[in-house]
Amino acid sequence: MSIFENWSWALDGWIVAAGVLCAVASALLGNFLVLRRMSMLGDAISHAVLPGLAASFFLTESRNSWPMFVGAVLAGVLTAFFTEWIRGAGKVDEGASMGVVFTSLFALGLIMIVRAADHVDLDPGCVLYGAIEMTPLDLVDIRGFLIPRAVVTLSVVTVINLLFVGLFWKELKISSFDSGLATTVGFSSRLIHYLLMILVAVTAVASFESVGNILVVAMLVVPASAAYMLTDRLLPMIFVSVVLAAISAVTGHLSAIIVPSWFGFESTTTAGMMAVSAGGILFLSIVFSPKSGVLIRFVRQRLLAWQILEEDVVAFLYRIEERKLPIGHDFETLRRELLADFVSMKVVLNRLVSRSQLVVDQGEYKLTDEGRLRAESLVRSHRLWEEYLVSHVGIDADRLHQKAERLEHFTDKDLRERLNHETNAPENDPHGRPIPAERDSPKSDQASTS
Amino acid sequence: MIRFRQIALIFMATTWMAGCVSLDASDEVPSTGNSLANQSISWPTWEQVRRVVLLQDYNTRVVVFGTTLLGCAAGIVGSFTLLRRRALMGDALSHATLPGICIAFLLATKMGYDGKSLSVLLLGATVSGILGMLTILWIRKTTQLKDDAALGAVLSVFFGAGVALLGIVQQVSGGHSAGLEAFIYGKTASMNVADAKTITMAAFGSIGLCLVFFKELKLLCFDEKFAGSRGFPVMFLDILLMMTVVVVTIVGLQAVGLVLMIALLVIPAAAARFWSDEMSNMAWISAGLGMVSGMLGAEFSAVFSRLPSGAMIVLICTAFFAISLIFGSKHGLLIRGLRRVRLNRRIDREHLLRAVYEKLESGQGEVGKGVSFNELMKKRSWSERRLRGSIRREQNAGLVSFEDQYVTLKAPGIAEASRLTRQHRLWELYLITHAEIAPSRVDREADMIEHVLDPDMIAELELLLDRAGQDVPASPHELTDSSVKAGVED
């Protein structure tokens, strides 16, 4: 593997460490942003810090870190504050008020910077890209160990965020889900809101100097969204999001080195690839989530559709038998009459035969006793429902069949008995057809209710 | 080999940083010295201003024309996205164009075409913008994630992919990717005729689409489910709207830049919301604001050469927003404050008249003089200042007279007071007979609702309680002061 030949702990190790710390710090707060529907705040703040940077540069006339940091955080908090104010006082939609505030602040910052440095080539993108690759160059000496400054800063931010989430766990939880309840319980959900905003601003500002803005914006939203797909509980959601964030930081750096080499290029921007791999993880969790993933929902739907088709097949064969209709029992007829596609019909018939509810005889499908039992309980459900709908709900005769056709699949033995009781145990349904008697067979019961 | 890769990477990043805004570069830049002292804008001569305002320069004419049209189109499209609660859709889409631009550049270069030709890059931007939009719609449709999370995720992931691809573009073009950045961050001042033509086409196209489908889009914005139930193709309309956003965003991106484009889509529409509740008016106002901001911003930056036009346009939009927020005729802060003051004064008048009426009715006034001010003070928990203000206003309106600390009702005041007392008591009776609330508690309930009872409601109450005519029913409970029991039976 060429990747490990080129791997250098002094460089790649620190880059990954900075990436993971940034990802974890952002993901911790991101959960609450996603739950509070403020996912776009990270993006807004990262644009809006520009005037803060410019203003502190004007005031101190140096690019000393601390004043710049404070200025940027103040601008970030102002963004959150103005957004909230315009939303509240002006009754403007949250997204729109955010859009108004951050674009205005960004424009203001641009003009300040242009006026400050006339001849410097202006590229607002600078704050967006960052340079995580530069991390290992800027080292500080801590008790004899040379550690990149970014790693130190981000560790501090991560610890602060962890403490915040830990100490204000109950408050954060209640105010995120029900701010009204928070007020009645007796703490200010507004205070929690602004604390969260301040920390988002601090995290964003601390991150983009070292690792780039795009990474923070992505890590605030994407891992939390992926975790939201995977679990319904808050604590597991935070754990999952933190783990996913760390994974995407590591895979991001690896793929920044590996993926371009497939196309014959040198390695590319790490921060961008970290965002992309977080996106990949989100995509995977949307598709494969065991709880509500696209795939599992598709499979569930398919299984249900097949079960319903199975029931339709046996009931159809039963009705043909009952009325002695001159209709064929072959595959094509069944498919045409029940409006099923080829594959589903094939699957369903094979399943019925393998459960010995049907037998095949020269291409003709016939009900076995077992199949007849299942069909009887279905037809019984159907006709009891028709009787019930006529006598108790008063539905028109021409709409009866449709309703009963839907309900029959979701009717178990208990419900049938109640229907039977409600309709005074009728012999015939409203169309005059006999209602089959309830025959006890544990197997058929299970088949029709599952 | 290892070292080479790392060093190359670091070098790349360094040049990148140096090319940026660069607060970082300011150490070396000689202009550091004049950062604070030399802030003055060089004022233009009158001749320059005249040339710009009268659009005498060809270049100014092109730029002003382009930004004006763009502002108009963005204003109309933005008012739909605002009402659809997707104001930041433009934000997400403009970020999502980056990977498409890079891939288009790479592919075109690979196949031997000019990678920086506008049509190639526009095509790439459109394709990836549409892809981003479809991803947002897909996430919204298939998952329980909310709109904002979908927008944020698509924005950051697509932009991250774009940043990663830019790293590769730099290797291919040997650091000459500056053209791409201009594409992303705009070059308003150097907008040329071809750009203006593209903008014109896109602007007229999207304005036309919005006008043709106005009714359908309106319904989509206000009640998506209703639109679906009436047989409108909701998904198609949604995609149509998003397509116009994509088109406007992309032509705007390359002309005026990323952040400005978001601002043009959001701010005029949000400002127009303060002026009208009517969808069509709002769209026109929003288009007008966008046009004027585009025009003024471009002219300002033409006059003051040191002000970037993109930022100027945004700030002028913001100024319009601030003006609308305060002075807007429908939802502005002033008009809402004024409405609140008016409502409070009306409530005060109604309280005063009823209080005097009830005092006189229960015989607590002095014959010929009326009710003393101190008696009135006891009637409700109101501040002295507020009561005096209210009495003064009604005195001027000719409803009450106030002499020697005694308040009494004049003829029009009596009519109004008996009407108010009557509707207060009708509501009390209604609560007692129909809502089974204890007589001792109805006063408070009626007190809260009496100010918003309209004639229809009163007519209904009269019918229900069988009390036609104008007579004031007797109070169903003891008339008490807020603090002291009056002890007078009615």
Structure explained in plain terms:
The complex is a heterodimer of chains A (about 450) and B (about 500). In chain A, the strands form 2 sheets. In chain A, strands 1-2 form a two-stranded antiparallel sheet. In chain A, strands 3-4 form a two-stranded antiparallel ribbon. Chain A contains 21 helices and 4 strands. Helices cover about 75% and strands about 5% of the residues of chain A. In chain A, helix 2 (about 10-35) crosses helix 13 (about 235-260), helix 5 packs antiparallel against helix 6 and helix 18 (about 370-395) crosses helix 19. Chain A has 2 domains: about 1-290, ABC transporter involved in vitamin B12 uptake, BtuC; about 295-450, Orthogonal Bundle (Arc Repressor Mutant, subunit A). In chain A, strand 3 (about 360) and strand 4 form a beta hairpin. Chain A has about 450 residues and is mainly alpha-helical. Chain B is an all-alpha fold and about 500 residues long. Chain B has a 3-stranded antiparallel β-sheet. Chain B folds into 2 domains: about 45-330, Orthogonal Bundle (ABC transporter involved in vitamin B12 uptake, BtuC); about 340-465, Arc Repressor Mutant, subunit A, CATH 1.10.10. Chain B has 20 helices and 3 strands. In chain B, helix 4 packs parallel to helix 6 (about 145-175) and helix 12 crosses helix 13 (about 280-305). Chains A and B meet through helix 3, helix 4, helix 5, helix 6 and helix 7 of A and helix 1, helix 6, helix 7, helix 12 and helix 14 of B.
